[in-house]
Structure formats: C-alpha cells, structure tokens
Design brief:
Elements (H helix, E strand, L loop, with lengths): L1 E5 L2 H17 L4 E4 L6 H14 L7 E4 L1 E3 L10 H8 L11 E2 L8 H15 L4 E4 L21 E4 L2 H7 L12 E4 L2 H4 L4 E6 L5 H9 L17 E6 L9 H7 L10
Parallel strand pairs: 1-10, 2-3, 2-6, 3-5, 6-9, 9-10
Antiparallel strand pairs: 4-8, 7-8
C-alpha cells in the first residue's frame, strides 16, 4: 500500500487525477467512479485536463460504486445523476457507457447480482476511485460487511444517513437502503485509489491503513490488495503512526503500470 500525504485537499485531487490520467494514457479503458465529497477535487482536476490538455475519455467506460434504492436516475441526489453533473457530462465519455446499479428495479436483489455480473463480464476495472466514511466504510459496505462480499443490497447505518443528510433536505429524506459493490467486487479492480481529506477522516484512515484487518473497518480490506494508493491531506493523516515513513518513501516513484 502506497500512502501519499499532501498538504491540502486540492493537492490530493491533483495527485489522484495524475494517477487516473496516467492510467488512461497508458491504455486503461474501465474506470470505477465514486461519489460524495471526497472525489470532487479529482473530478475537477480531470475536467481541467480534458479541456486544457486534451485528455480524452472517449475510449473509456465507467462503473459507479453504488446507488440509493428508490431514487430514479433523474433524482438530483441519485448517484447516476450526481456523477454526470460532477464529472462525466463535462468530458467526452459516452453517457451510455457510464453504468450504475438500478435502484428502482422491480427486483433490486436481482439488479444487484446483474450489476456484479456486468462488472465481471466487462472488467476488470482498471482504476477504482474510493472515498472512506467516518466509520470506515468504502462504497456502502458498512461495518460488519463480509470482506469477500459481492454487489448486494445493504441497509445504511444511522451514522451514514446523518453524514449524507447534508445532500438532502434532512435525514428523513436519506434512503435507508442502497445497492453497493461488495468489498470482494471492489478488490477485483487492478488499482485502488482512496482519497480522504479532513480531520474527521483521520481515525478511519488510520484504522484502514495501519489497523488490524477486520470487518469492523471495511476499508481495512485494502491491506490485502496488491496495488493500492491512499491519498490524504495532512489533516486526514494526523493519526497515522508512520506518517514520516510515508513521506520519505514517496521519494521513490514506482514503475508506471501498463493496461
């Protein structure tokens, strides 16, 4: 696991965007996209590179991590809508090649299995962007999730619903259920890139990177993956015991992966 510590959020976004852009330029065609506040700086940096530097996503397709159950793609807080508003509508990726779970399917359990099968059939995902929740969740794999889980329907914890209430008119408007890629599905990706900023993420980051491998911190499953980059700002790195080592190790840039 490579841990990259930057001073502030914008630098984190540029660093993660470097990874995605390098992957695309090296032949990556399947991207895993996350929503929420954590990856916004990444998307802004990628949009700038597309507009100013000609970075093209025309050959790419993308898979979203998760979706709220009961919100149609037209709903402003559905992740299918958010990812288009924040990123894909601003670059040259084909909108038909931006895939998300169907949260309004007649049978959401079947929809979850079909989405997992689609990722397996088309994938693997070359680069998967991730955020992390204050309780250590990635995607919507809440504490207690199986480390080998596949895409499925999950019930959100009250902490997660309250954390996401800022995007809605109140916590009562936040759906209680989601379809999310499982931890096993996420770990099928070739390169996982987790971005976290702010002191409120510091405990979760430390547990994921340096704590024990445990379902109590779902993000700790990243410790098992062969290619993980964790990009954090100084505030989110505050509880890392080995922060000085990570800063020193960054001097040695790993070889660029080919896709």
């Amino acid at each position: 696991m490579e841990v990259v510590i930057r001073q502030h959020e914008q630098q984190c976004g540029v660093t993660a965007a470097d990874i995605v852009a390098d992957a695309v330029l090296s032949g990556a065609t399947t991207l895993g996209l996350a929503t929420g506040s954590s990856p916004l700086s990444v998307y802004r940096a990628l949009i700038r590179r597309h507009r100013q530097g000609g970075l093209s996503f025309a050959a790419a397709q993308a898979f979203l991590l998760d979706e709220y159950v009961g919100l149609p793609p037209s709903h402003p807080q559905s992740y299918a809508h958010v990812i288009r508003a924040e990123f894909t509508d601003h670059v040259d990726i084909d909108s038909e090649r931006v895939h998300s779970p169907n949260g309004v399917a007649d049978d959401i359990f079947v929809a979850a299995r079909e989405y997992d099968a689609l990722i397996a059939d088309v994938g693997p995902v070359d680069v998967q962007l991730l955020g992390i929740g204050g309780n250590g969740h990635i995607g919507f794999n809440e504490p207690g999730s199986s480390l080998g889980s596949r895409t499925r329907v999950k019930t959100l914890t009250e902490q997660t619903r309250h954390d996401n209430a800022r995007f809605f008119s109140g916590v009562d408007e936040v759906p209680r259920h989601v379809i999310t890629q499982g931890l096993g599905t996420i770990c099928d990706a070739r390169h996982l890139v987790l971005i976290a900023t702010g002191s409120h993420k510091a405990e979760a980051v430390a547990a994921a990177v340096e704590g024990p491998l445990t379902a109590s911190c779902p993000a700790s499953v990243l410790q098992l993956h062969p290619h993980v980059t964790v990009v954090v700002d100084d505030a989110a790195a505050a509880h890392l015991k080995n922060a000085d080592f990570y800063r020193y190790a960054l001097k040695y840039k790993p070889a660029q992966q080919k896709y």
